[in-house]
Amino acid sequence: MKAMLLKKLCHIQEQDTPLELCELPVPIPGKGEILLKISACGVCHTELDEIEGRTPPPNLPVIPGHQVVGRVAGMGEAVTGMLIGNRVGVGWIFSACGNCEFCLAGKENLCMDFRATGRDAHGGYAEFMVVPAAFCYPIPASISDFEAAPLLCAGAIGYRSLNLTCLKNGEILGLIGFGASAHLVLKMVMHRFPNSSVFVFTRSQKEQDFAMQLGASWAGDIDDKPPGLINSIIDTTPAWKPIVKALENLKPGGHLVINAIRKENIDHDWLLNLDYPRHLWMEKKIKSVANVTRADIIQFLDLAAHASIKPEIQMFALAEANQALVELKNRITHGSKVLKIG
């Protein structure tokens, strides 16, 4: 099978071909696993974090990719509820222990043995992959393979982030950064909270225009002053400056939800600008988002089907994965990037 393989960590600005197109054997599913013939895989900012070492894979080489859609092509022993040809998706959560206090409480995203697809196990930048059957999800018939791929991570993590904001209908939501996840959150808010307004902060004028086209009430740069203070804000950037700016624009009692797997150290001096009375006083709350649960993915796919929430997508061939990653690194974005495979 053809696969894009990460063999060593690198900085994409210095190396524009971090992945190598290779020919590998088709994997064999073990007990409880299925073999997935892949048709689509989303390209996520987390792949940049893996490649550049901010959340490095424990072992190399590895096949990245954690927004995977395909058909069941084979099954190992003890797989139930699956048929050959079933269309399923795989998200960031590849597996969890199932026995710890977090797993038993439905918080498997916090499990110490959490394994991530495309980082801790081979992912979807390939023609085939094996995955535990318990961590696959049926794709609603109304959603195409290529539309479904970004929903499995960008959509699911956006769904979790939005739930953590405790937003109420009629309140204002702020979005800092406007990539694959944030544009789906905007669509979710318009469906779930029709009386709410969304303010978008992004450096790119094209992204500001895109946000307004999708229904944002206001869009500007992170340094711009919005029309008013904001009830809840979701930050999806890899930088610290937006955190300080977000707290400045947050209402008393408001929630700041940080949806980022890592923050870069190059601008951490911004934290020194924190002023307690201006930024943290008045019971403002800060939460981080850690991974997703299976329930997040299942519930969001159901919501997306019923509300016709579909991502804006840009297609690439499997062999063009490096191009997609370079564009993502250079903030050449318009919705979600998806690899067409097979």
CATH level-3 fold name of the largest domain: Quinone Oxidoreductase, Chain A, domain 1
Number of strands: 17
Count of DSSP H/I helices: 9
Taking the alpha carbons of the first and last residues, their distance comes to: 10 Å
CA gyration radius, whole angstroms:
20 Å
- Structural class of the helix and strand makeup? alpha/beta
pLDDT under 50 segments (min length 5)? Answer: none
Helix content: 25-40%
Mean pLDDT: 94
Say which CATH homologous superfamily of the largest domain is assigned. Medium-chain alcohol dehydrogenases, catalytic domain
Describe the main β-sheet briefly. Answer: 7 strands, mixed
What is the CATH C-level name of the largest domain?
Alpha Beta
CATH architecture of the largest domain: Alpha-Beta Complex
Elements, N to C (H/E): EEEHEEEHEEEHEHEHEEHEHEHEHE
Question: What would you note in describing this structure?
Answer:
There is one protein chain. The chain has 342 residues and is α/β, with parallel strands linked by helices. It folds into two domains: 166 residues, Quinone Oxidoreductase, Chain A, domain 1, CATH 3.90.180; 133 residues, 3-Layer(aba) Sandwich (Rossmann fold), CATH 3.40.50.720. It is built from nine helices and 17 strands. Strands 3, 4, 5, 8, 9, 16 and 17 form a seven-stranded mixed sheet that branches. The protein has a six-stranded parallel sheet with strand order 12-11-10-13-14-15, with helices on both faces. Strands 1-2 form a two-stranded antiparallel sheet. Helix 7 links the parallel strand 14 and strand 15. It is globular and about 60 Å long. The model has no long low-confidence stretch (mean pLDDT 94).
